[in-house]
Amino acid sequence: MHALALFVLYGNAAVALQPRVLHRKSIGLPRPDWVTDAFLMTGMFGSYVTRNADLFIGGLRTDDGRARDRGRWIPLDVREHFPARLGVAMTQLFVMRHWDTYGAVAQHHAWRGLAARIRARHNRRHPEAPVARVRFGQIDWPQHPAGYREGKRAPRVRATTWFEERPLRTAQR
Amino acid sequence: MRARAFALARAYDAFWLAESSGLRMAFFRIAFALYMLGYLGVLAPHVSVMFSDEGVYAPYLVPDLAPSPAVAHALFGSMLLLCCGLLAGYRTELCAAALLALYLHHYFLQLAVKQSSFERLIIIYLAVLMFAGAGQRLGLDGLRARAPRVAWAERLIAAQSIFLYTGSGLWKAVNPAWHGGALLQSTFQGMWATPLGFAIARAELPAAAWTGLSLGVIALELSLGPLLFFRRTRPLGIALALGFHLSNWVLLFIPEFMVCVAALLVFAEEATLERLVARARELGARRRV
Predict the structure, then answer these.
(1) A13 and A85: one domain?
(2) B11 in contact with A, Cβ within 8 Å
């Protein structure tokens, strides 16, 4: 009991009460990365954006299944793989924790796993339209107070692919 | 020196092990269990896609150990059952420990990826409930032999809440993006904003008003800690914190932070809670008559 209390108090004192700005100036208690990771409860809404976004997932059709879109990139239903509301789905597809805590390399590694799972799930659910590769990212546009997608009009819309699976080598197919 | 160390240890023990009626933790336990039933209930239709090996998930710090959909449903269903156990105050410590173990499995498999604060709070609350004896009042555990009730758990949860608000205010206070109103204005037009949030964004408030609002949020968060700490200002602190979380829900669609409202119950006066219980019993007795 006392150990848990000390741990919770120390973790909060070292992380919650010491924003990074202060900690960089070596003001405060020592905190290993895992303590920061465990007690980082205070940094929400720390930066602002001027654009709103939707997610997209695309799949490259194989030469199997239906004929009309073989060899072409087709859109996959984002909600089929990420059923939560947009804000939550955004953090899941962006793998926010991996990126925020361990950086771009960890994020890329997590994206590889995520893409493989999206591909496997799609192919299981849609055997008539299997895909060989998956890519995903965001489509964004300037914010507008009239509504979330009010500013989503050409030419202000832009698409950014965060991750695209590499082509499989013939031997792997 | 030695005498001073002993005195300090005694004061430390006296603080954590002070006698308590157990009502605060009982109310917290019930509110927290209801919250967990709601939170997990929302996820329940998506167990296969979120937590099974046929789903889409991003494990954090653990190997990919997602179970089959059938096992995933069984594990998730067990969490809901354990929440019911917590709600009823039945074998509370055991329920909390098992729930924590299962929650950590789901957390590291999928939920952690979101980098959400409220999920860290859930883990801390469950860890505290493992030792809290929170089922002895208003719970089935009260029917069995009783251990002495101490204030340890309610004081730890109170401390966690004070840290949360103070820390959150402090982080915003040192973040230049929060010193103007642009961040808040963009948040009210962003992916978390509700129609009411957008309506405020459309109101064409001057930049000074947005800055005032932004600084107001910082001031509110920084003041909540002291307000909740001192007994005389606690009612105001509870009311402001409740208003803050409700506004987060209606302006930004983030109801998950209502878990913090359950924790506010540990700041309530025991006499007030006793009166509530007495009134509820009175009403129950009248109905039976």
Answers:
(1) no
(2) no
